[in-house]
User: Fold this.
Amino acid sequence: MLEVRNINVSYGLAKVLWDVSFRVEEREIVAIVGSNGAGKSTTLKAISGLIRLSSGGIEFNGERLDQIPGYLIVEKQIAHIPEGRRLFPFSTVLANLELGAFTKKARHKFGESLHYVFELFPVLQERKDQLAGTLSGGEQQMLAIARGLMSIPLLLMLDEPSLGLAPMLVIKTLDVLQKLNQQGLTLLLIEQNVHSALNLCARGYVLENGRIMIEGSGQELLNNTHVKEAYLGIL
Assistant:
């Protein structure tokens, strides 16, 4: 479904990604793990068209993404849930969800999608008239995911969905992602919670200093000596 080939990205003179390549197959959960500053968020921004490539290419279902603007990438049914949620805090829950359904296809299925996300996250229906900025951290993360789902994505990309959440809410969030995948949605997951991410994913990649250093199944990476020492605290 998604193929990233030898992409290089720089911020001015500072190079951030170095020949990064990976793939995401349909109906997979793929995780990219690594420490702060490794280039994980930059990778998602490059796919979303928020950052231009210095070189390399990105294809989605056989079509080039790296040569079109970001709003057209959303039209291709790719949703990006950014780190920190990036909600509209002074708009209601319902207004945030409406903004997620801005593409032509999503607008036509707004009622159906709204019913779906309210079933997935009942608390959002209860709080639909509440300002997004007044929600708890867990509820805001639910809203961020729901807003992405309102665009009817084929690929859902999530940047640190467990960041700042209590342990019980982390488990609930990951359970929701697993449920979405079981219903057929393809997921690309960026996570610092390495153990949880690798337990959830079919395949994973370890990104270090802007380079893919290791790849394999989630279980293979959990059993990898370097991953154990560097990210799981197992010596």
